[in-house]
């Protein structure tokens, strides 16, 4: 017998039952559903809608269900359609018909909205913790390798050498904005929809403010139709999650490239790699590859829910049941990626020797050489032209700028003097860029200090502030 069976004369078609049921996935909301029901029934008692003895029986029943849920002994039945009706049915089986009073002044529509808000609020907090830890791992690595230079690229062509710490810190700040985006989305997850009823509110004199306080919500929905039919709080989470995954995916791509023989900048720890079933020499960067790959599904969930929402009339429509699986999968995918990346970064090895050779063997000092001529009075455009020709000369002779003699330099410009060779030293090229936000060692140290302060602020007040870093 269905909880809504009164209006029906025939049993539900089996295929319909299987097709419309959500218990296979919304059972993940059982904890939140019980928490919401407990607050609801206490409120019904306080408002004199239910007698106190009924409230106590129901509350005890809900507590027992909570214990069974934690012990893993609660069973769910597809015939009961979703988590809400499964739990209500369990309650009635447990404490008798009085259990049927729980749903007074409530609909599954506001109930499921409440569950989702409770669930997502908790998960955003957990994701925030994992993200902070990943930022810490990045910062530790940046500090450990503060002396290491790597080639900096544009168009994936060598451009100018940078500090590895500077490169890693770039991701730190992307993640800082991701943390802020999640925190901002959380403000709109932190809203209480219960009391909206099916769509129009309820005839019972309920106290929505009390329920909101009891469940720790800082605001409540002002419109019952809005409360049961919008899912923008999930969309915002999915959008923030998608941007965060895209950042992780870009970092993945670099780690994959950097650990290849062609780059050889880093060595991923054995514990974070896997082998090949046929090629004995292989050590594959599966973790960053999968993070890069799984970015597709997270962005897909965002687009999927946007499409679910785009044509829906107010208020509740069954389409909204489609909001859950993508959200759950995004939470799981994101948490997995964040936890793995923190470990991956903490265990990877930077190949210092190789990088020392790599940064010395390219033309990435060319801009500084042009600036050298500019400082001697040549207009930048002419300096650019002269160095361009110099580079071409080297390319034709298969050598680098540092390999030419002063006499050769002078054939390109009489302004060259003995000090030209100092300018080409990659360390000088890096340290010449001590502008705020630049790659010079002093500038990067100051940047890492600001990153530390951001982290401290964030973990202390949960309120990191990029504006603060702006003020210096
Ligand atoms: N399982 C449903 C969902 O996830 C719960 C709400 C059902 N409401 C309804 N009017 N059928 O959306």
Automatic annotation (TrEMBL):
The keyword Amino-acid biosynthesis applies. Its EC number is 4.3.2.1. Residues 6-300 form the Fumarate lyase N-terminal domain. One of its GO terms (cellular component) is cytosol. It is found in: Cytoplasm. GO terms for molecular function: argininosuccinate lyase activity. Pathway: Amino-acid biosynthesis; L-arginine biosynthesis; L-arginine from L-ornithine and carbamoyl phosphate: step 3/3. It comes from the Bacteria. Keywords: Amino-acid biosynthesis, Arginine biosynthesis, Cytoplasm, Lyase. It catalyses: 2-(N(omega)-L-arginino)succinate = fumarate + L-arginine. Its main location: cytoplasm. InterPro entries: Arg_succ_lyase_C, Argininosuccinate_lyase, Fumarase/histidase_N, Fumarate_lyase_CS, Fumarate_lyase_fam, Fumarate_lyase_N, L-Aspartase-like. GO terms for biological process: L-arginine biosynthetic process via ornithine. The keyword Electron transport does not apply. Pfam families: ASL_C2, Lyase_1. Residues 363-430 form the Argininosuccinate lyase C-terminal domain. Belongs to the lyase 1 family. Argininosuccinate lyase subfamily. This is Argininosuccinate lyase. It comes from Kyrpidia tusciae (strain DSM 2912 / NBRC 15312 / T2) (Bacillus tusciae).
